[in-house]
Every structure is written in C-alpha cells, then in structure tokens.
C-alpha cells in the first residue's frame, strides 16, 4: 500500500532508501539524499516489513506544473511495478492539486521506464556526479 510520509520516522526510512539507491553507489553523503523541500513536498512510499522499498517525491512548482524527484526502488524489488505504483500515485495527487504538467529529470537508465509511462523526452539536462546523464522529461496530465 502506498502512503504519504507524515512522520519523521517515515521520512528517515525514505531518506535511507534514497541514500542506498541514489547516492551511496557514487560515494555521496547520506545528507545528499534529502533537502529543505522535503518539509513541504509530498513524499510517497511503499513499505514492506517496516522497510521502505519504493519512494518518490512530488514538488509543486507553480499552479500548473509539478516535478517528480527522488524516485527509487530497492534493487531486489525492481521489475515488480512498485516504481510504477509510486509514479501513478504521485501523478494522481498532482492532478487532484490542479496540476496540468509534470516534469522530471530522469537518469539515463530510467528513461525507458518513464517513456513506458507516457513521458516525453524534452532534452538532455545535467550530468550528475560527472557520470550520470539526465534527461528532462514531461507529461501532460
């Protein structure tokens, strides 16, 4: 079951997954797995046996546009549609908030996942940690 993080403990579980999947493999710090926007953003996650196995964050940028960030799934749970469940949940939440378009910066290895979920590539964006090519993608809701 997907839920929104409402406690410090739930956020810590999300930060731990972000760190393990999105930061640690590139020798980044634990602190790089969260930022000030976590206090005002919507953090969705799926938990199994009290462990966060999938997560994603929705940032409202303005009255019509939102951004999805920090999508992560524990490696042993990939291919089981947990990431897609989180993505669909965040898209539904965005739509309920009146958002018309979602943008995101997908890592090169995640582009196909977003294409399958009806996102379009706009352009290459940044190179994270001088290694990971990202692509600006968007979807009209």
Structure characterization notes:
26% of the residues lie in helices and 38% in strands. Strands 1-2-3-4-5-7-6 form a 7-stranded mixed sheet.
Detail the topology: elements first, then pairings.
Blueprint: E1 2-4, H1 8-23, E2 42-48, E3 51-60, E4 65-73, H2 82-96, E5 101-107, H3 111-116, E6 120-128, E7 132-140
H/E series, N to C?
Answer: EHEEEHEHEE
Structural class: alpha+beta
Estimated helix fraction: 25-40%
Radius of gyration using CA atoms only: 14 Å
In short:
The chain has 3 helices and 7 strands, in the order E-H-E-E-E-H-E-H-E-E. By secondary structure, it is α+β, with helices and mostly antiparallel strands.
Characteristic terms for this protein:
141 residues; alpha+beta; 3 helices; globular; seven-stranded mixed sheet
